[in-house]
Design goal:
Layout (H helix, E strand, L loop, with lengths): L9 H20 L2 H23 L31 H37 L1 H16 L2 H11 L4 H10 L3 H14 L3 H8 L4 H12 L1 H24 L11 H8 L8 H29 L8
Helix pairs in contact: 1-12, 2-3, 2-12, 3-4, 3-6, 3-7, 3-10, 3-12, 5-6, 10-11, 10-12, 11-12
Amino acid sequence: MSAQPTFEPLNAQLAAAETGMSREWRAFWRSPLAIAGVAILGFLILFSWVGPMIWRLNPISTDLSYIISPPFAGHPLGTTGVGQDQLSQLMVGGQISLLIGFFSAVTGMVIGVVYGLISAQFGGWLDTVLMRFVDMTLAIPGIYLLLVLDSILQPNPVTIIFIIAVTSWQPIARIVRGEVLSLKTRDFVEAARAEGAGQARIMFRHYLPNVMGPIIVFTTFQVGLGILTIAGLSFLGLGLPQTTPNWGTSLSNSMSYMYQNAWWLIYPPGILIVLAELSVNFLGDAFNSAFDPRMRGRG
């Protein structure tokens, strides 16, 4: 009788994977960059969601008695060119900017991960077609796609999330595909096939947990890219309507008063955008150091 193939028990491998994941999360929380990123992001979240509960001025109401007024007791960050309170504008605008950054990153991540898993798992002609489509979309400048989609679709937060997502999912699709191809011949995958696991179970139960490190890192950086993208579109007068508060629109509107020394309209939205980008970049670097074995010097 021929010897039956033996595989490492799945439970042992899953336990080892859980131990490794715990070690990686501990390494993440020991990183000064992680602490700094969480602190800055926590401040921005409190500023954007708790702030309006304390400072209750309506961000879109106007007071023609105070137009382009510098900061004073009634308006700690001054007023805009139409008499709107700058502080409440930035608080409510932070909600839109942060939510669009987060959900556009998550949406693009989901599209790219599923796409990469399917391409690597089924391989053959399907893999070739899917990857050539990725190459074709990457050859089109992202800013061009953003402008075309923005001109076609009715601008609102949902469509902006969709626009950013469909122009940013390709890199993670290629990353996931490459990682999965390196896992297809591993013992735990062979064991799952021998036990009769279907394609979907192998992809989402066995491949996905093993590629979560690169996915988390990519998604973190994409949050910052989403925030910068909506700020850039708003600065160009595109994206969300001018009546929808967000940091990019506040910065764009402030450019009209640059030569009037209206610093309270220029610096605060720019600083908030920089802080948001710094926080997610710090978190992305910390995730990369914790989840990438080469960054920790282990194979």
